[in-house]
Amino acid sequence: MSPAEFWTHETVRAGVGGSWLARPDRLPALTGGAAIDTRALAPGQVFFALRGERTDGHRYLGAAFEAGAALAVIDDAGGAGELPPGLPVLRVPNARAALGRLAGAYRATLGSIRAIAVTGSNGKTTTTRMIDACLGAHLRGHCSPKSYNNDLGVPLTILGARYNDQYLLCEVGANAPGEIEPLSRMIRPNIVVITSIGRAHLEGFGSLEGVAAEKASLASHLEPGGAVVLSADAPQLAPWRARFPRVISFGMSPDADLRVSAVRQSTAGLAFTLNEQHAYSLPVLGAHNASNAAAAIAVARRLGVPDDAARAALAAFTPPDMRLARTRLAGIDIINDAYNANPDSMLAALRTLRAVAPAGSRRVAVLGDMLEMGAGGPEAHRDIADAVAHERLATAAILVGPLAGLMAEPLARVGIHATTLDSADGDNALAAAGLLREGDTVLLKGSRGVGLERILAALRGRAASPTPGGIA
Question: Which residues of 183-201 are buried (b: 16+ CB within 10 A; e: fewer)?
Fold first, then answer.
């Protein structure tokens, strides 16, 4: 079966393993793809009614029908209530699992596509976007929208591929052991990319070796002739290299196949060299992004994209939201890296703050809790404070959350003023914004659950009606 022939009501029924609760009395055209949110649903797609912490998709079948759904998949007939007349509905034991089943069945029809799967403790989304930029300059393909990297996002990405796509690019993440292998089976990657191994989600993985084992499992279902593109700067991956059929390494290590060197960072972005002879530039901050770009170049070469095309794509690259994104408000230069945080990414962001802040500018680090660190959380935060103090990465700090607050005392001992806040909610966000002043260079960095972007929103409001402020 070809991908174009896959999208029929009966094929989808077989793919999800469902039974008809409401048979199609007409045959609305299935155009391909799926959605779990009616606001993102396009006409002709399959709507999967999922139950979440705050809502239940079964209550939105009418909205799905109005949005043009050609079919709905549910697992709770009672919760669905009266079905919209004319909407075909399939009942399955578990709608979430059925979404994955359908994606696996669809992937089996994409025989000629080259599937790339990207994982790593840091840099997954940025590297995925860089790969898409490089490949898209020369090939047709489909990339995961946003950070769709779990058992919902990966199947939605796969189901969004078209029959004439030449590549399929999936981002893959995990919070606990055993989550990546089923996604590898679903994707059946031709190329696996492992960007880094770092101290992320240690509450679930327990150690860096546990993180490496989980990331390496993305290659469990590597297609014949496939390759693994991995960081040469992650020693925890060394035991796994012999298990991969073909390895292409990248990074700062002199042993890397794609060696990154001569990294230069300025307010305009990065410049770096590969293997001492190929020059590249990126309009993004963060010296670590040179290694992410090297991973993208490795994938582009593997798929036959000319170096000149990849070089031009990287030179015009736009980073994802809240990944070292630069904004200027009321004379304050803000580096927003508040999408997520772990010790390695926080240290990299702080070093970026020091590297790009103009001489004489106060370097204000607004740091939120690093979550999911387990029992090592307090020590990890103190380690960051020690690094800030030793390397003089900031001249002032605003610490948001109980764990981040542990950094205050080590910073104070070396004369770095730190203000502590319980959260970034409401008045606290306004208070943090009020501590910043014209001429500051400010870094926002914390775990997603802290929501430091609310401080940026408060600063926008203050910029519209300025009041005196500042910290010593």
Answer: bbebbbbbbbbbbbbbbbb
All residue ranges of the chain with pLDDT < 50 are: 472
For every residue of 48-99, DSSP letters joined together read E--B-SS-BGGGGHHHHHHTT-SEEEES-HHHH-SPPTT--EEE-S-HHHHH
CA angle 132, 136, 139 (to 5 degrees): 125
Q: DSSP readout, 298-346?
A: HHHHHTT--HHHHHHHHHT--PPTTSSEEEEETTEEEEE-TT---HHHH
Helix H, strand E, coil C: the string for 112-138 is: CCEEEEEECCCCHHHHHHHHHHHHHCC
Instruction: Please say whether the beta carbons of 156 and 123 come within 8 A.
Output: no
List of residues 6+ apart from 206 with CB closer than 8 A: 374
CATH number at residue 346: 3.90.190.20
Indicate whether 133 and 245 sit together in one domain: yes
The pLDDT, as a whole number, for residue 472 is 47
Q: What value, to the nearest 5°, has the Cα angle with vertex 159 and ends 156 and 163?
A: 155
Q: b/e for 236-250, b at 16 or more Cβ within 10 A?
A: bbeebeeebeebbbb
For residue 232, CA distances in Å to 182, 226, 253, 292, 435 come to: 26, 18, 6, 12, 41
Judge residue 136's burial from the number of C-beta atoms within 10 Å of its C-beta, 0-12 exposed, 13-18 middle, 19 or more buried: middle
Q: Which domain holds residue 363?
A: 325-464
Q: Count the neighbouring beta carbons within 10 Å of the beta carbon of residue 336.
A: 21
CA–chain centroid gap for 449, Å, is: 15
Cross-strand pairs, 460:
none
| Whether residues 154 and 201 fall in one domain | yes
Provide the pairing of β-strand 71-74 with 46-48. Answer: parallel
